[in-house]
Amino acid sequence: MVRRERNRLRVPARAPAVMASQQLLHFGDALSRGQLINWDYLGFLFKQISPYFFACLGTSLAVGLSIAGAAWGIFITGSSLLGAAIRVPRITSKNLISIIFCEAVAIYGVIVAIILSTRLESPFVVRDSQTGLYPIQAMTAGYAIYGSGITTGWSNLVCGLCVGIVGSSAALSDAQNATLFVKILVVEIFGSALGLFGVIIGIIIAGQAKLQGTLPPP
Amino acid sequence: MYGFEALWFNIKDGYLDGVVRGHRSGLLTTADYNNLCQCETLDDIKLNLTGTDYGPYLANEPSPLHTTTIVDRCTEKLVDDWNKMRANADEPLGEFMDYCTYGHMIDNVVLIVTGTLHERDVHELLEKCNPLGMFDSIATLAVASSMRELYRLVLVDTPLAPYFSESLSAEDLDEMNIEIMRNTLYKAYLDDFAAFCRRLGGATAEVMGGLLSFEADRRALNITLNSIGTELTRDDRRKLYSNFGLLYPHGHHELAAAEDFDQIRSAMEKCPPYQAIFTKLGFGESQMLDKVLFEEEVRRLCDTFEQQFHYSVFFAYMRLREQEIRNIMWIAECVAQDQKIRINDGIVYLF
């Protein structure tokens, strides 16, 4: 306990690089004391990470996961569609709708990523020269953009899967019985609405965030 | 992982899944059978089949037609479909499709060996073999005179070799031994196939498990029916039953001890799914049993298409097509022999 108190007091006083090596040493200490997670160290770590890192990670996950979901859905639908279309060629043009639904999921991701990237504005945020920390508004904005990105990304990934699997069944059943297509299309539309939920929440989360520093005094 | 095939299945097998479902929609429906049943001559049958998948295969057959020609052409259609799909199949679907044909291989081996025993010409026998179960060295089967030779000279290079380890004996090949060999082989094959499907896991294991245990139970039932009144002892009979299925193991005990049809019936009726089948049979109608079992099998095979992302559809397609070919053969025979009154006895409607 005594040691922890001392660390906490010491942290702001030193330059960041020196502090980091010291904290790493204490991380080993914490383990030897039987304490699995060194909360002080973690807090210190996250305070040191630039909000730009989280902002960019969120943006890339939004677009990356969405596109992975869309691609996954398209190959699930596409391979079944190709196989079924050998015997019943009429289904190809109708079932392109399933592919387009999957594609829309990728577009959601791209849109959200563009919105998120506009949240990064100049002038850039810099550390406080006294404490070595980033301003609290900048941290909030970084985490908000990250949260928005993973919300959109994961929801669009599973949405793409859902639409892809339903689309594959739609293609196969349309090949057997043309009247089933419209009915399964309704299922597919509801599936693709799931991705939109993620997009809406993502935009709301990032709505307040603005990653912008102040101009240095002239 | 069960339930997650949907995510991975289509990477390798989505295309062929679509293809085999396309083939399935080419199977004859009840309406087609009704038209076929109205036919007066074999040429009428050919005319009726022109509009179906068999059309291109029958188109260039000159009159007069024979029943065997029609059946051969229809089988050719199945074999063509199967080989095209096999050529496109990735692993482990390819292995699965190979497994589906090992049963035909066993039948072919038995056919050749039995034929040789009766001093028939090998080439004539080869023509009668099922093309799905052919392998390179099949013609040399005729030289073997005992089971050990059969194994050492020919079958050691075929996929059937592991199944022989159970049935290897130095005894001469005679009628009875061959029949026992067929059933031992088939037992080992079914056990192996079921184990393979379990290894594949997921929906394939579930659906194939149901189909194969029905197959195993049906074989157990047929073995029992055919061995009543023969010199086969109870223990020998029991050795021929597969090591899985709904009847395993208690039903097998009862079947092994059964001496007449009613005892078999009471053994089978202890399984709820089979009880439903046997209630369709009145007492003393044992000759209808085959047809009822075929109908049950066809019903189960059709049901496999209700589920997606599993391999059983390939097995089911092959079995359904074979049943359809048997139906066409029956209709053609009835028409050719002027027995149209019996035409409905042998048809198992698919849809």
Automatic annotation (TrEMBL), chain A:
Location relative to the cell: Membrane
Entry membrane topology: Multi-pass membrane protein
Transmembrane domains' residue ranges: 52-76, 96-120, 154-172, 184-209
Subunit structure: V-ATPase is a heteromultimeric enzyme composed of a peripheral catalytic V1 complex attached to an integral membrane V0 proton pore complex.
InterPro entries in the cross-refs: ATPase_proteolipid_c-like_dom (IPR002379), ATPase_proteolipid_csu (IPR000245), F/V-ATP_Csub_sf (IPR035921)
Classification of source organism: Eukaryota, Viridiplantae, Chlorophyta, core chlorophytes, Trebouxiophyceae
Name of protein: V-ATPase proteolipid subunit C-like domain-containing protein
A matching Pfam family: ATP-synt_C
Molecular-function annotations in GO: proton-transporting ATPase activity, rotational mechanism
SUPFAM superfamilies recorded: F1F0 ATP synthase subunit C
Residue ranges occupied by any V-ATPase proteolipid subunit C-like domain in the UniProt entry: 57-116, 147-205
Entry keyword set: Hydrogen ion transport, Ion transport, Membrane, Transmembrane, Transmembrane helix, Transport
Protein family according to the UniProt entry: Belongs to the V-ATPase proteolipid subunit family.
Organism: Elliptochloris bilobata
Automatic annotation (TrEMBL), chain B:
SUPFAM superfamilies associated with the record: V-type ATP synthase subunit C
One GO location term (cellular component): proton-transporting V-type ATPase, V0 domain
Pfam families reported for this sequence: vATP-synt_AC39
Keyword Ion transport among UniProt keywords: yes
The species this protein was found in: Elliptochloris bilobata
Keywords in alphabetical order: Hydrogen ion transport, Ion transport, Transport
Quaternary assembly: V-ATPase is a heteromultimeric enzyme made up of two complexes: the ATP-hydrolytic V1 complex and the proton translocation V0 complex.
Transport recorded as keyword: yes
InterPro entries for this protein: ATPase_csu/dsu_sf, ATPase_V0-cplx_csu/dsu, ATPase_V0-cplx_dsu, V-type_ATPase_csu/dsu, V-type_ATPase_csu/dsu_dom_3
Gene3D superfamilies: ATP synthase (C/AC39) subunit, domain 3 (1.10.132.50), V-type ATP synthase subunit C domain (1.20.1690.10)
Membership in a protein family: Belongs to the V-ATPase V0D/AC39 subunit family.
Function: Subunit of the V0 complex of vacuolar(H+)-ATPase (V-ATPase), a multisubunit enzyme composed of a peripheral complex (V1) that hydrolyzes ATP and a membrane integral complex (V0) that translocates protons. V-ATPase is responsible for acidifying and maintaining the pH of intracellular compartments and in some cell types, is targeted to the plasma membrane, where it is responsible for acidifying the extracellular environment.
Organism domain of life: Eukaryota
Record protein name field: V-type proton ATPase subunit
Example GO molecular function: proton-transporting ATPase activity, rotational mechanism
